[in-house]
Batch of 4 targets.
Target 1
Amino acid sequence: MGQQAHRTARRRRLGAALRNLRETAGVTTAAAAEAIHGDGSKISRIETGRHCITRLELDTLLGLYGVGEVRTREWLIALASEGRKKTWWRKHSEILGEGFKEGLTLESEAARIATYQTLIVPGLLQTRAYAIAVMSGSLIPLTDEELEFYADFRMARQDLFNRDPPPQYLCIVAEGVIRQQVGGPQVMAAQLRHLAAKNKPPGLTIQVVPFSQSAYTCTGGAFTLYSYPDPLDFDVAHISYLDGELYLEEDEVTAKYRRTLDALRASALSVQQSIELMASVAHELEQQ
């Protein structure tokens, strides 16, 4: 469990690329292992994302595989170096699940984040009161101290938007998300006011798919798509389910999620219409 648990999408992507380069060059695992003074199992662990690779080992393998193209080398070096970055949540690492930590890594390094939500406002856009209301409904009861910790942690995640440059963020929500009175009318009204104020394209865009939309794109549930700039240049789709997290990296799969997002956005209200709807619902709630 130990080594496999620490695999990340980026490390798996690097390993798959190195395996492809080795096989294309006709180099055996034994020869590759000898070049970096390891054994066949080490190469296997690197190629399956279960083992970190040092810069010296990477340079050695790229030389052995005859990789001279600058862009390819930069892409692989970036993949390897990003995986060794220290994370701001490292001091809390022991109490965070491995799947959640992988999501935090993807979130903190993405150039673009696009999400579709069917039940709740995504964590990066939640107010503190709304976040506490959501977490209070957890199947695993949380103490007041735990609620405070996770609420603070969720707010800390939102510092992502203070990064220079911040990621481009697209959030598409079903109308039910803004109608569900999470935390009660006043908490929800404040959350909607918060969303309306944050809705400032192209950096941060929030759009609502209305109940009145007849040509509705069926997705099967909520998901998030993370995209990365050159030389990383790949997408990862993230799906949360009751027992954990699922991360999908295959190009044809992530392309399907990208097309789905495009279809959802086409069926959503415009940004201005979405702001007006959220303001209207907030006003109704404030009158209760």
Note: DSSP finds 13 helices and six strands in the chain.
Target 2
Amino acid sequence: MADRALRGMRLGTQSMETAANAELAARTEHHYDCPNGHIVTMPFSVEADVPLSWECHCGALALLRDGAQPEPKDVKTQRTHWDMLLERRTIPELEELLEERLQLLRAGRRG
């Protein structure tokens, strides 16, 4: 008899509330322009802080139309081995070391 009490009702999948007499929050639509030519339109609450960028469906970063551009991040260039070597020695010192090593190799001694 207990199994008949909720007959025809799907638990957890349907709401018993209706949309009648419900007031939706005030919204504004903001447009984001993708570098690949796509336009992303997102609705936001009037009270929400609108982000300057939004990820487009293609994966690129779309920027807010008529908005301030985000600050560019400082790009730190990667130092190579040659750059680090030049921090420790000058070109004439390196040429001198190269000549010493070549003389040792030519003499047949590896030290």
Note: The radius of gyration is 34 Å.
Target 3
Amino acid sequence: MTIAVLSVASEAYPLVKTGGLADVVGALPAALAPHGVAVTTLLPGYPAVLATLRKPRALHRWNDLLGGPARLLTGTLDGTHPLLVLEAPRLFAREGGLYTDALGRDWDDNWHRFAALSRAAADLAAGAVRGRHFDILHAHDWQASFAATYLRYHPVETKAKSVVTIHNLAFQGRFDASVFPALGLPGEAWAIDGVEYYGGVGLLKGGLEAADAITTVSPTYAREIFEPAFGMGLEGLIAARGGRVHGIVNGIDPAVWNPAVDRALAARFTERSLGRRPANKRAVEIAFGLEPGDGPLFTVISRLTWQKGMDVLGECIDSLVAMGGRLALLGSGDAALEHAFRLAADRHPGRIGVRIGYDEPLSHLLQGGADAILIPSRFEPCGLTQLYGLAYGCVPVVARTGGLADTVIDANTAALDAGVATGIQFNHVAADALTTAIGRAVSLYADRERWAMVQRRGMRADFSWAKSGRRYASLYRELLSA
């Protein structure tokens, strides 16, 4: 029996993307198809999404979806898999980012925008559109998690089960209590086991209370969020629902991330043709104004935030250069961190190169040309950049947390001798620990034979969606048979 899944999210590659969430949501339909699961993706009707629709057809209309009209349009996510788009111009037709205005400030009505998306998803799962049946409602992060809440309190009884995936528990969608009356929920939902959260409304909290299953994007993160240090105030709820929490590591899409066919590279290569890789390194050096050197070329492709440990990296820049390393950084985030990295580039011309912003093709080139990628995150639910690094022979140097711990094998002596090492891990996110890890990378890079062995072992690792897709399909079947 084919399982019909409605996957609802605020972004999906290749239509709209601000981070790894989009990559995961975009990859799920193809990942699940071999396992008897048919995924339909529901997205907000941002201008960029509407522009991709060819001859869109209105499948359903709401005269009043949380205060205004809306339409459900049909399309395809990638030319193959079905897409539904919630067209509500009052909520989504605006200039700026997906979640922020042109000045980077959160839209004041984000609660309204994503509650409407969630309500539309719940209506679909409850059978609002004739001929469209869904067995599973799978909601991603706080922007969509309220779909499980609306399904829980829906006036139409349904057999559909709900799954909420936590991509990052730090982002919870917390809003003032004054928004509750506009959410269209019964009064009973305003309760500690409902949507009330420290006197306000918690969109993610409400979804986690209502979901039939909760997943995180790595097994280690699934264990970590039971602890106050990682639970972000929700560890009590997680503990209470512990039997419903599952850790399923993310995968990567080899159709998008494959150095053998990647057109963003100056030279394509495989694990058997690493000799072609230096052409990409030279292209990175040119793009970032870096001088050639004998030491390793490190890269950072990241949001420049505290969570990502970028403040700690800033403390290590001078040491990295002193050890013979160079750095090509691509990212944006906190203004103070952006400024600090620009100053580092000024201090070390030709050794440090910084691009503020995000550039998808350039991120591919960096993975294919840099020797190692630095990921000193304080917490990391899964992380995708280390997976891209492994696939492209860009050795990850990572903090031992979340998905980073699950996907990178530390190059200690035993692992090197056994030929299983794929990167370098360190425990404590502090300047001394990161500096030591960078030093280990510099020393290992000097042994080119062993360095190439680590590269090849990482490139041979299977982080495609095959295993993860099978795990999700198994979870869906467990829910439907319960």
Note: The chain has a mean pLDDT of 96.
Target 4
Amino acid sequence: MQLAIFDLDNTLIGGDSDHAWGEFLVQREQVDGERFREANDRFYRDYQRGELDIFAYLEFALEPLAQLSRGQLDSLHQQFMEEVVNEIWLPRAEELIGRHRRAGHHIMIITATNRFVVAPIAERLGVDTLLATEPEEVDGLFTGRVLGEPCYRSGKVLRLHQWLAHNPSYQSAEKWFYSDSINDLPLLQEVEHPVAVDPDTDLRAQADTRGWPVISLRDAD
């Protein structure tokens, strides 16, 4: 048993789906444009610096899910996939996943972005398991609150361990983890095969120091 784990945003796709979803809502006039865009950009800068207050961000990011009906959300997300995700799709990411799949590996995405935003992307990529931040639902409606531990930084390690506890055949699996972000350093240090993918400056420095492979899924070569 072997496990190939992937971050999603800026790793398997050429952008950040969480930030892009917020921008998409602004463009569709589904949120208070000026206020929402400023906060969305500010939180994204915090994330890039490794300084994000995940709970403050989720309070902000999950609010629109509670304000719109499921029908509205599903329709908007279909447009989001067609107009935004298609533009940041990375064929080389699909090829990498395919190599692991042909080797018989279990394919997992583990992402801080909430499940509503990322589930259709993971489905299109054909992964076996998606671990994502879970937005709370009551009677089929989002509440605007997070359910359980956010899948962020050390939370990714915790969520993976919880999954392994329920899937004991993978407890001793050899593991790969691919990520672009210094925020994923805790999980990168946990696996046998950490790989930096188009890494940010801080992760690139860590990869160079630790001798981790660095690859690109965006370059032509």
Note: Strands lie at 2-6, 106-114, 129-138, 141-147, 174-179, 193-197, 214-215.
